[in-house]
Hints:
- The chain is α/β, with parallel strands linked by helices.
- The protein folds into three domains: 1-61; 62-160, 2-Layer Sandwich (Beta-Lactamase); 165-398, Rossmann fold.
- Helices cover 36% and strands 25% of the residues.
- The protein has helices spanning 2-15, 24-41, 46-61, 66-71, 104-117, 165-171, 176-188, 202-210, 254-261, 278-286, 302-316, 321-331, 394-398, and strands at 75-81, 86-90, 93-96, 128-132, 138-142, 152-156, 192-196, 219-223, 236-240, 268-271, 294-298, 334-340, 346-358, 361-376, 379-386.
Amino acid sequence: MKHRKELLRQRVIREIDLCREVSDEELYETIDRILMNYCKEEYITIREKVQLRREIFNSIRRLDILQELIEDPSITEIMVNGPEHIFIEQNGKISPSDRCFESSQKLEDVVQQMVSHSNRVINEASPIVDARLADGSRVNVVLAPIAMEGPIITIRKFPNQPIDMDRLLELGSITSEVALFLKQLVIAGYNIFISGGTGSGKTTFLNVLSNYIPANERIITIEDSAELQIRNIPNLVRMEVRNANSEGSNEITIRDLIKTSLRMRPDRIIVGEVRDAAAIDMLQALNTGHDGSLSTGHANSPADMLGRLEALVILGAEIPLLAVRKQISSAIDIIVHLGRLRDRSRRVLEVCEVLGCQEGEIALNTIYEFEEDSEEDGRVFGSLVKRNDLKYKDKLKRAGIHLY
């Protein structure tokens, strides 16, 4: 089957005029004609013909064998470990795919097609790149000599329709009480930081919270690779970093974008993820009147997130630790921590209030915390239990909002 597909693919390529733009319809017509002639040479079933038609088209115009995986809504992650090993995540479980690339060269062709869509460059001199597909899926690619078994591709897919709070409630990721609480905090302009591990749903949750931002505000989003799907804000400015060119110049970083965003009259700034020295610029932005801003970061707990922010700030500037902690405690009001339980479900595990810097340490007030009740048929049951009340309610009062 693989040999037959490549034979027919080569015939199609010889037939089409590569010197001009060929439409999808014209390409399909050429494939159909080639398949019809081939059927005179060798018998193939209708099912095989339909499959060959789709695979030949995808190999020329789309992303070859990955295209059907990308179009499958039940698949949330695709992991390519060289041309012969492809894994997928479905319903929270990772399993091997029965597909493989014909050669390492074909896989490299697909890689170049992926990154060119995002105006990125990848080669042996710059073997690592982050990009996105046309549907918004996040892509990370690593080439040789870093990847020893062939090109490595990791694709994180996002649903066509952004998940909203109702869907999170349906999935049991959050309770209605906590959802209402966070809605009131977003409207009132609390600076909220979302923490969690890889795949815990930070970007999805950031999208959900952004739906509560009043529609009359001006929002600026800053991301490494544009993933946020904010749809209810008319006055929205989206910015994305630019990697350095082949000469190593003309790079536009998160830090550059945060600095320029302050001159664009934002009401709120949303930074997709803080993972480097841009942390100091983000904190300064939050401390200069942009209440209600949002961001995310990788960490195992709210306390770990604060510690990681401290380290990132110190990496970017020589500032005394106490001053850093005061900056962080002044800038961030709330930390929402997400995680994946052993049944692979994504949950809000903790909602903490940052109280300030007390005796040289940042104090946290745990407002809600996930408490496990039971486990049945491999599914974990539990709920967010209230531990303490919100202490600082000044922003709520200024916004005219009364909790509950």
